[in-house]
Write a structure and sequence with these properties.
Immunoglobulin-like, 29 strands, about 20% strand, 21 helices, binds 1-deoxynojirimycin, alpha/beta
Length: about 725
């Protein structure tokens, strides 16, 4: 529809109709194709609001959506279609590995392809917008939602942000098989104090701008249609009421022209934060700040009319927000085609199709990170291997946010290994959680009815299996319900029963390879001590078991690198590689010096740092060669290394470029990732990798909060992880 017509439509709409266009309700209100007033009216939503709502979340299924859209448009005074939105995070029916795992691939193609598959499946099922990507930078492994992010690094997240938006939206979200992307959670939701979900966030403006905002901005620049506000306060201001954040930064500085949606009930929570005295004031603050859509509260629908009629709010502000909702529908082509790609036949064809499963498996294989291996991996098919642990059979490995995918469609480790035809025996050993445990997940409840006696029998069987085997593959980790939204943990180790299993197995068989399932970095000191190999597989998705079997048996080598540091102990958290220089940096050569920045009881360094990960082969690096020791304004230099596979198997290495600004007008980080390239090399093969360094890559927010590069000395590091000392120096001169 032409913009002129949108404006005419806006002009024709009544005040109430406009207000209702800003309301987003839950799918359950529309169950069965007509308005179900029950649950809605209990929460105070009027039938009229629902009838005239602008969008809806969490309804899926082509037939259902078409029915609801048809009825809605018939009833709506101006026949305006709804927009159907849902959380399609790492897939719709075919679950890819969780986003944190995707970060470990250090390959944006993995994320882009995952988003393409998700868009294809979700759009066939009638969904038009996904609440993804989540681009919250995370540095605190206690926070349950680290699984939804691509990790601790600003640059890696920004590269992935672009790939994800392109994957969902393609060149034009109107096109068949594409959906709109909604960037979330704006802003800095990933930095809650003490890692506790929904807690407040305190960040300096410089850290916010240098580290937290760039990934959101990359997604905005890639054309994401929506941005979601965050639940948290940022420096004491709830995001949905933060005019500076939404109007000055998002719209003004980043140039965002799309639609801003609140997170679920976040407008009402402005009142809980104590920044508004009631819902009416919350509505006023949110609209003033620039929040267009009110997800799941009555704040806008019940109070905007009064606020406008009394002159407390200017109707022009409402018109602006409504126009953005209409524009969103227009960008999705809904005025011409309100059902977009909803199609029962297409659903049958694409959901969980072979091609999507194959892509999910290939993606998963790229995300596994080998942390330890003293040579027991890869396994040989003839060896007798006991696969032990709750995750041998577990199918809840699709990620906590895979709310539309069915775990029954997932391939377990046991099934994957059976498909390979290896000489394997299996024993569960214990459940993921303790006997009698009850734990609510995102959309299910974990409940164990196991008795202590039954648990002991399972353990005994596993010990017996371990005794009979050459090697043990111990499949252990966090239960999916322990990860995701509202799943902050203070003790980030594996559950007690699994620790006991590990200890008992280690008593009878020392050849243990641990396959670790996790939605966050864990403290794995004990695992490191008792196992000879550790393979991190995260929550690997629908094809998890097949991918794991292929990597364990060496059909392909693990090639992931950690997107987030694994702490030595939770006491270090937040721990991340690009920390700031301190005045008393720990000198390991002076352990007797008390007055250094350090812990008395544990090392400063994480157990495994960002960027770390092994292969089944080894790589050598040449020194770093710079094309010049001098970089001029608007000029460029290159940093090159030659990487060689010096082992006897094919493998991948992610070559990483880090830069340290030696002096600045404000304190600079010890190093920052500025480039990476993943290479597959045959045994004996070598390749030169070159990175171009420009002034832009050296910019930060200086003492005057100006985004600029300062002349001076820089150190370049190129290597296989964030601790590499392979380095060279150059100067930036103006
Ligand atoms: C709350 C979550 O914070 C957000 O990420 C999600 O998109 C919405 N609920 C909608 O389900």
């Amino acid at each position: 529809m032409e913009q002129r017509k949108l404006l005419e439509l806006l002009e024709e709409m009544s005040l109430e109709e406009k207000i209702n266009q800003l309301f987003q309700g839950n799918g359950s209100f529309y169950e069965g194709g007509s308005i179900a007033t029950g649950p809605a009216s209990e929460q105070g939503f009027s039938e009229k609001t629902i009838r005239e709502a602008g969008s809806v979340l969490s309804i899926v299924g082509a037939e259902n959506i078409k029915k609801i859209q048809k009825a809605h448009m018939e009833n709506h005074p101006h026949h305006i279609p709804l927009v159907f939105m849902a959380d399609i995070i790492n897939g719709y029916k075919t679950a890819f590995p969780i986003p944190l795992a995707q970060g470990a691939a250090f390959n944006p193609k993995v994320a882009k392809e995952g988003a393409e598959v998700a868009a294809k499946e979700a759009s066939a099922a009638g969904i038009q917008v996904t609440f993804s990507p989540m681009l919250d930078l995370v540095r605190d492994a206690r926070w349950g939602r680290v699984m939804e992010s691509n990790g601790e690094d600003t640059y890696l997240n920004s590269v992935y942000a672009k790939a994800l938006v392109e994957g969902y939206q393609g060149d034009d979200p109107k096109q068949p098989g594409k959906i709109g992307a909604c960037v979330k959670h704006f802003a800095a939701y990933g930095a809650p104090v003490a890692g506790r979900d929904y807690n407040n966030v305190e960040l300096s403006e410089r850290t916010l701008r240098d580290d937290y905002l760039p990934a959101y901005e990359a997604a905005v620049k890639a054309g994401a249609l929506l941005v979601m506000t965050s639940f948290n306060t940022l420096n004491r201001m709830p995001s949905s009421a933060n005019k500076w954040l939404l109007r000055d930064i998002l719209r003004g500085e980043m140039g965002f022209e799309g639609t801003v949606i609140s997170d679920w009930a976040a407008i009402e929570e402005i009142r809980n934060h104590g920044v508004a005295k009631d819902r009416k004031e919350a509505a006023k603050l949110a609209l003033l700040a620039g929040t267009d859509i009110d997800m799941m509260t009555t704040c806008y629908s019940n109070y905007l009319k009064e606020l406008i009629e009394s002159g407390e709010l200017d109707e022009a502000l409402l018109d602006e927000a409504v126009l953005r909702v209409l524009e969103l529908k227009n960008k999705l082509g809904l005025f011409e085609n309100p059902y977009k790609d909803a199609d029962e036949e297409a659903e049958k064809k694409v959901l969980l199709c072979e091609e999507h499963r194959r892509k999910a498996k290939e993606a998963a294989k790229e995300t596994f990170v080998l942390l330890e291996n003293d040579g027991i991996l890869p396994l040989k098919k003839e060896e007798k291997v006991a696969f032990i642990g709750p995750f041998t059979e577990e199918k809840a490995i699709i990620g906590a946010w895979s709310i539309f995918a069915d775990e029954k469609d997932a391939v377990s480790v046991k099934e994957g290994v059976a498909a390979i035809g290896a000489n394997a025996i299996f024993a569960k050993g214990c459940d993921s959680l303790e006997p009698g445990a009850v734990m609510p997940g995102m959309n299910f409840i974990y409940e164990s009815s196991r008795t202590q006696t039954q648990a002991q029998m399972m353990l005994d069987e596993a010990v017996e299996a371990a005794q009979k085997a050459d090697k043990v593959v111990l499949c252990i980790g966090e239960h999916m319900a322990q990860t995701g939204e509202a799943a902050s943990r203070a003790d980030i180790t594996i559950p007690e029963g699994q620790k006991k299993l590990l200890r008992e197995i280690a008593r009878v068989n020392k050849n243990i390879a641990v396959v670790l399932f996790n939605g966050r970095p864990l403290d794995i000191r004990e695992i490191k001590e008792l196992a000879k190999a550790v393979l991190v597989v995260w929550m690997p998705g629908t094809e998890g078991g097949n991918a794991i079997a292929e990597v364990l048996y060496g059909e392909t080598a693990p090639s992931g690198k950690l997107p987030m540091s694994f702490p030595y102990a939770v006491g270090q958290v937040p721990v991340f590689y690009n920390e700031f220089k301190t005045g008393r940096r720990m000198n390991p050569d002076q352990p007797e010096n008390r007055f250094q920045s350090r812990y008395m009881d544990i090392p400063n360094e994480p157990l495994y740092s960002f960027g770390y990960g092994l292969s089944y082969t080894e790589f050598s690096y040449s020194g770093v060669k710079l094309s010049s020791g001098n970089l001029e304004r608007n000029g460029k230099i290159t940093a090159s290394v030659t990487v060689k596979n010096i082992g006897s198997r094919k493998g991948a290495e992610t070559v990483q470029l880090y830069i340290r600004d030696e002096e600045g007008s404000v304190v600079r980080p010890v190093r920052e990732l500025r480039g990476f390239e993943k290479l597959w090399l045959d045994p004996g093969e070598e390749k030169e990798v070159s990175f171009t360094i420009t002034e832009n890559m050296l910019k930060f927010h200086d003492i005057n909060m100006k985004y600029t590069a300062e002349p001076g000395r820089f150190t370049v590091f190129v290597g296989g992880n964030s601790r590499t000392l392979n380095q060279a120096e150059f100067c930036l001169t103006f």
